[in-house]
Amino acid sequence: MNSVGIDAVAIHAGKLKLDLVETFAPAMDEAPEKYTKGLGLHASSFPDVDEDIVTMGANAAHRLMDRKGLEPDDIGRIDVATESAFDNSKPVSTYIAGCLEQVYEGDFHHANKGERKFACISGTQSLDDAYNWIRAGRHRGRAALVIATDTALYARGDAGEATQGAGAVAMLVTEDPNLVELSPEQGFGSADETDFLKPNQQFPSVDGKRSVQVYLARMREALEDYESVAEPTHPDQFRYIPFHTPFPGMVRKAAMLGYRHMIRDSSIEDDLASEIGRQPRIEEFDDEEQFMDAVRDYMDDLKETEAYRGWYEGAIEPTLDIARHVGNWYTGSVHVARASALKRALEDDIDMTNEKLLVGSYGSGAQAEIHTETVREGWTEEIGALDIDDQLAARYDISYEEYEQVHDVHNHDKETDFEAFTTPESEFVLSGRGPMDERV
Ligand code: CAA
């Protein structure tokens, strides 16, 4: 069997921009630095009145199929990952297939369609499903279309409001892929958690501070589990490390945790020993609290070292370029991080062929997953075709009053009557106001 992985990717960003510095911070009476420096965000991509998870997913998928010259007959399965679904029975993939059938001559009657749910990690789980389907030889030469689409909106006044976002990532999974090959080895960290829930409600109930701790705990377990089936990880092995990015400040914490773990017992730790000492070991302490204090002190020192800063600038920072301007896309977020890093590599003329990525996915509820990817020769062509910069530049910049209106439109509990801010150009939009309306 040839290698299996992501052959191509297309992104659709919500068509409105909520500027956190100019618009949101003054309205919240907060210093803009809380968002830009603390959370690491400058803006979010917000869905226009006539956009939803279906139109965004269909637009990303159409862009992908169009660019790759694909017809419905070339696609054997369509998996949608989302945590913003509006239908508990019929999967979002059927709605998206319905949209695509309006523009292609063929149809998707032959294709296996589904919907994956496990908060943000379900985008990566859908990639796994596609990978397994191809590796099992059930694909009959066809490709899988994986679409991660979400409107990551929070109730007004919720601490998560600053991290909102909306967008879709469509990925084509094939044998002998152009973009990245997926490793068969995976590591998991999974536990029943209740810090982030959407039980039949539109906006999540979140214990934000706890959610950060749960993310870090599950990610550490996943890294250890990955090492138990693959090999010990080392920072120099990976050119980039894309993490699930609810906001870049979260990744800053995850990166520190990952780095500390990866340098343990390595020559990097030896080199740093004279500068900041060795990492505390639990067996050296009488109680866990003292140990945790020592770990915190070590991390404070580690953060300031040239070794850590250089690694962070090279391996992590480029994964955040897009997220800073679009916010959280839930299921699509880690896939945006991968695209962001490879886009930076292309801009900086870095040869990525055969380079490794360590990919850290996460979903509340909670589960983290770690796997590696190898960049393929065709990556420049695939990443060069992304039009995300143009999309972001074309967004309509909403005022705070317009933000209040459009947030109400997406809050299905409220009756509203507002027109879209943008004019559609050869794309799918909602023809009415509700999720069950037609998309044209
Ligand atoms: N200048 C510089 N930095 C500032 C600042 C200023 N003027 N004011 C505040 N900050 C810093 C704070 O020190 C803090 O940084 P550290 O965490 O490094 O200490 C950062 O800005 C954020 O400030 P607060 O902690 O005060 O912010 P908050 O409490 O209002 O909100 C949050 C933070 C609770 C995480 C909130 O954004 C939230 O609830 N988000 C939604 C949940 C979420 O995204 N959780 C992430 C893990 S779960 C997950 O990943 C799944 C998912 O997609 C949701």
UniProtKB/TrEMBL annotation:
InterPro entries documented for this protein: HMG-CoA_Synthase-like (IPR053544), HMG_CoA_synt_C_dom (IPR013746), HMG_CoA_synth_N (IPR013528), Thiolase-like (IPR016039)
GO MF, any single term: hydroxymethylglutaryl-CoA synthase activity
Residue intervals of the Hydroxymethylglutaryl-coenzyme A synthase C-terminal domain: 195-415
Gene3D superfamilies cross-referenced by the UniProt entry: 3.40.47.10
A GO biological process held by the record: acetyl-CoA metabolic process
Keywords: Acyltransferase, Isoprene biosynthesis, Transferase
Record domain Hydroxymethylglutaryl-coenzyme A synthase N-terminal: where: 32-175
Matching PANTHER family: 3-HYDROXY-3-METHYLGLUTARYL COENZYME A SYNTHASE, HYDROXYMETHYLGLUTARYL-COA SYNTHASE
The family this protein is said to belong to: Belongs to the thiolase-like superfamily. HMG-CoA synthase family.
Protein name: Hydroxymethylglutaryl-CoA synthase
Organism listed in the record: Halococcus hamelinensis 100A6
Native organism taxonomy: Archaea, Methanobacteriati, Methanobacteriota, Stenosarchaea group, Halobacteria
